[in-house]
What we know:
This protein is of the alpha+beta class. The chain has helices at residues 2-12, 19-24, 54-58, 91-118, 127-156, 387-391, 408-420, 438-458, 483-489; strands at 62-66, 73-77, 86-88, 161-170, 176-186, 424-431, 466-470, 491-498.
Amino acid sequence: MKKIFYIFIILLCANSIWCSDALAQVPKRNPITATDLDGDGVSDMSGQDKCPTTLTQIQGQRATTINEISGKEVRVRLPEKLPDYLFQDRIPLDEELKKLLNKQGEYKRELKRIDEKFGKYDKMKSAQRKEEKVKYDSLNADMQTKIVEIQDKIKKVDPNSYIEFVGNVEDKDGKITEQQVKVRIRLSVDSFGCLPDDDKDGSPNMVDECPTFVGSVETGGCPDRDKDGVPDHSDRCPDVKGKKESRGCPDRDGDFIPDIDDECPDTKGLLELAGCPDKDGDGIADKNDDCPDVKGLKEFKGCPDRDGDGIQDKEDDCPDVKGLKEFKGCPDRDGDGIQDKEDKCPDEKGTKETQGCPDKDGDGTMDKDDDCPSVPGPKDNKGCPKILEKASKVQFEPGKSVILKASYPLLDELAKLLKEFTDANIAMSGHTDSDGDDASNLQLSKDRAQAVAEYLIGKGIESSRITHTGFGETKPIADNNTPEGKAKNRRVEMKLSNRK
């Protein structure tokens, strides 16, 4: 519409007084004029310019052409708004010619005024008329000479426009090789205002990536069989319509991964997982994840192992505490082969028979319940050998600390036991019945305990392993009013203990 408006103004205002003022109101687009809207130097008058959209064809595109400043071929990105960077060598001459024509128009209008004032057919008798006509005829003739001179100059300069800007020079892969280079590119349109286009595909040679193949403007002049906007040479799927983001291939789920590379083409996914989703973000595709909603480990197919003991939580009976495989992930702190939740002594090595508690002498009675932890004995005797009960029945001569020979076999058996179990100590305490005074009984009890100790030492038992004391009649275990009770109270009690 603007183009038609400008042409209309020029035709209407050819000899009008207000023509110059009207043209002055037309927006100045350097060097684009009302008769050359695309600024390529070929007039739009009478349809002379067959390619009236030259600038639109190339602006914003990557061009390969000659830089008139350096004389070298360059590959650059053209500016988006080319009219701001467009010039012509003959612009100053065109502007000067325009001024001269406007001035000549003023002279012609003045001559017309003179004719109207004095009468066109007055036999030119008026001296004033003659004088003014001579003046303006002379001025008009001088102006015509100047106009002809300018027109001759215009014929000798390049009519084509050129683009001049500062840009970056790139290689064929788009990598910048030079920065901020001044570039001047001649449009070099033909007499019909068209840029060279050898393959006639509407994409001029200078911006045509495939100048010898018929293509489309949208694909930089290159063929695009499937019409998806991606040229065939860059299109991984040239016969199937696709997306630019996926290099011309279909991408049904819109995850920017071409369907041909997408193992899950109907579900949005991740590039590193070949297009498959990973809801829990553990780096394992949901289709391969046994626990897709909980972060897990690859070795467990995406299932978690909270305590990090190498046993996945769903198979771990103790998922929050590090444990062992043989106990389904439960711990065994003391390493005795009995898991802590079943171990009555979880911090001390024990045995299965004693429910995880230690049993040093292996008699089946746990140490904490064993009165003789270093020497095996039956459970019904609190883990102590029954020889202690027998040895406690050592007989003495009445009122003396002399051991009767009948008791030697018992003490010999005791000595043998102590030699076998060297970690055991023995403690003896002497007791009497209530006959006699207290002081005498106390001393007698001590002497009898010492007598047993000396007997054992004599059999090779270290004295350091034996302790003895006496309590007299203070700790009876039977009634002193009967002969049987008194016999029970006359005794030497013995107890084994761990040497440590």
